[in-house]
UniProtKB/TrEMBL annotation:
Gene for this chain: argC
Domain Semialdehyde dehydrogenase NAD-binding: start-end pairs: 6-109
A GO molecular-function descriptor: N-acetyl-gamma-glutamyl-phosphate reductase activity
One Pfam family this sequence matches: Semialdhyde_dhC_1
Residues annotated as catalytic: C120
Enzyme Commission number(s) from the entry: 1.2.1.38
Protein name according to UniProt: N-acetyl-gamma-glutamyl-phosphate reductase
Subcellular location: Cytoplasm
Keywords: Amino-acid biosynthesis, Arginine biosynthesis, Cytoplasm, NADP, Oxidoreductase
Lineage: Bacteria, Pseudomonadati, Pseudomonadota, Alphaproteobacteria, Acetobacterales
Length: 306
């Protein structure tokens, strides 16, 4: 009998770590767990890293950087790494773990020693923008503005506790200093030349997300219509299991995909006003975090999800 690959989730008890652990039953792998009482003990974590083929880091950014340093000290015995934090998403030497990014990306992830799992908001924004820029429909200098709303689980354990214990706020804009940690990731991987304006928000619901991007069609190239945008997106994702391009819907609830690892893209165009709104709907904990991590784990280990 061939041995199953061994996975260690550093941060297994956190929101993202738990989501990945639950999903691992869909893959033929062995999970190497450590005693939760020792979850921050460097010696115990280093031994677990040495025992693993793949380590999934589900830690705050600074702890992720320290974990990578720890893995580096293992030299030849260092495991492959998948990092769920923001720390390495634009870093040289890391492959961006969004398999649908381009036709070559899944293969790049398969062979990569270090993969960064995308952010939840960037997953939606990049999925909408990158195909339009690659197709020459949107100029890379287009002044992109991105609005988004997330469920409170996106803020991790602290925000979950604040909402579930104290009950609010019902809806809150944040990131209004326009320096949200996801902007550089969107800027780079969407292929934009100009820094986008990004306005995130959080609502009093646990899971779900909508990313929306308003467009003036006359400022795109070639007199395009909403149908042209739909065709460009649909053509790009036709063979993808996790990304679906659907007809416009006059109303979208952010919670509809809670518990799912899929993402829905739509183009809401108005031919009279020559305007459109692109939307991506996903679960911030699904395709926005743990579901995407599972896709990357399967690719990196050459496994098929059950
Ligand atoms: N929640 C989300 O929607 C998403 C989160 N992410 C990213 O995933 C990462 C984890 O986030 P999330 O799961 O939400 O966070 P949580 O706060 O829910 O979990 C983080 C876990 O890491 C543990 N931890 C903290 N510091 C260390 C350390 N030095 N050594 C070992 N363990 C440590 C924490 O333990 P303790 O609680 O005891 O401190 C906790 O169990 C973050 O980088 C986040 O940005 C990515 C996509 C979406
Ligand atoms: C609602 C909320 O607070 N969301 C988080 C983003 C979720 C997250 O942690 O994103 P990463 O994938 O980059 O880790 C935030 O805006 O910081």
């Amino acid at each position: 009998m061939t041995q199953q690959p061994v996975i260690f989730i550093d941060g297994e008890a956190g929101t993202t770590g738990l989501g990945i652990r639950e999903r691992l039953s869909a893959l033929p792998v062995t999970l190497h767990s450590i005693d939760p009482a020792h979850r921050k003990d460097p010696a115990v974590r280093k031994d677990a890293m040495a025992a693993a083929d793949l380590v999934v880091l589900c830690l705050p950014d600074e702890a992720s950087r320290e974990a990578v340093e720890m893995a580096n000290t293992l030299g030849q015995a260092a495991p492959r790494l998948l990092d769920a934090s923001t720390a390495f998403r634009t870093a040289p030497g890391w492959v961006y773990g969004f398999p649908e990014l381009s036709p070559a990306q899944a293969e790049a992830i398969q062979g990569a020693p270090r993969v960064s799992n995308p952010g939840c908001y960037p997953t939606g924004a990049i999925a909408l923008l990158r195909p339009l820029i690659d197709a020459g429909i949107m100029d890379a200098h287009y002044p992109v503005c991105i609005n988004a709303v997330s469920g409170y689980s996106g803020g991790g354990r602290m925000m979950i506790e604040a909402h579930e214990r104290d009950g609010g706020p019902a809806f809150e804009l944040y990131g209004l200093a326009l320096e949200h940690k996801h902007v550089s990731e969107i800027h780079l991987h969407a292929g934009l030349a100009r820094r986008p304006v990004f306005v995130p928000s959080v609502g009093h619901f646990a899971q779900g997300m909508i990313v929306s991007i308003p467009l003036h069609l006359d400022d795109l190239n070639g007199g395009v219509t909403g149908e042209d945008l739909h065709t460009a997106l649909a053509g790009r994702y036709t063979a993808q299991d996790h990304v679906h391009v659907l007809p416009a819907d006059p109303k979208l609830s952010a919670e509809a995909l809670a518990g799912s690892d899929k993402m829905e893209l739509r183009v809401h165009g108005n031919p009279h006003t020559r305007q459109a709104v692109l939307t991506a709907r996903l679960d911030n904990l699904g395709k926005g975090a743990s579901g995407a991590a599972l896709q990357n784990i399967a690719l990196m280990l050459g496994l098929t999800q059950a």
